[in-house]
Amino acid sequence: MGKERRQSKRIPLGLSVAEPIRLELSTPKYEGAIPGVLVNISSGGIALLIFHEIPLGHEIEFGLGFLGLEEKVTGKVVREDKRHNETFIVGVEFTRRSPELKDMLEKMAEDNDICEFRVLTDIKNACFPECSFSKLCAKRIKKNF
Q1: Quick one: 90 and 113 in the same domain?
Q2: CATH code for position 28
Q3: What is the pLDDT of residue 12?
Q4: Do residue 81 and residue 110 come from a single domain?
Q5: pLDDT (tens digit, 9 = 90+) per residue, 80-121?
């Protein structure tokens, strides 16, 4: 098995909470805004489902707006997997994002890990009111506090 390249814990998003976003692109094949769907996120980057090919190393700009934080971020495409027809999953490493976004995402990943551990070890009432991930959580055990 290969060495893990991620430096940040990833936060998976279920399809019920997957976040639509718009990417601003300027590539040899496309100029303008395209839709994308946020598949997972970490303090270091995101994975997106998109419908246009974006070359590796290409810089993109997009807005993230959830949990009360509206922010324009930039990132570099570091991975691209072609799926069916013109569907792609791209990995984007952040090149510009605020310290507040980084801190919020690190806390959400930590809280998600705590929850996963509680679920795996059958701890009753695995959800906890202080969980910063709860608004994006799609787990069956989720409680609304």
Answers
A1: no
A2: 2.40.10.220
A3: 75
A4: no
A5: 998 888 899 999 999 999 999 999 999 989 998 888 898 889
pTM over 0.85: no
Residue listed under structure tokens 């980084």: 102
Q: In this predicted structure, what is the pLDDT of residue 39? A: 86
Written as six digits, the tokens of 135 are 């608004």
Domain assignment present for residue 5? The answer is no
Can you give the residue range of the structural domain that contains 110? 100-136
39 and 62, same structural domain?
yes
Other beta carbons within 10 angstroms of residue 4's beta carbon come to: 6
Q: What span, in angstroms and rounded, lies between the C-alpha atoms of 89 and 71?
A: 22
In terms of residues, how long is the chain? 145
Are 93 and 107 in the same domain? no
Query: Is residue 61 one of the residues assigned to a domain?
Result: yes
Q: How far apart are CA 19 and CA 7, in angstroms?
A: 23
Residue with tokens 């801190």: 103
Q: CA 15, 77, 71: angle at the middle one, nearest 5?
A: 65
CA distance 115 to 136: 13
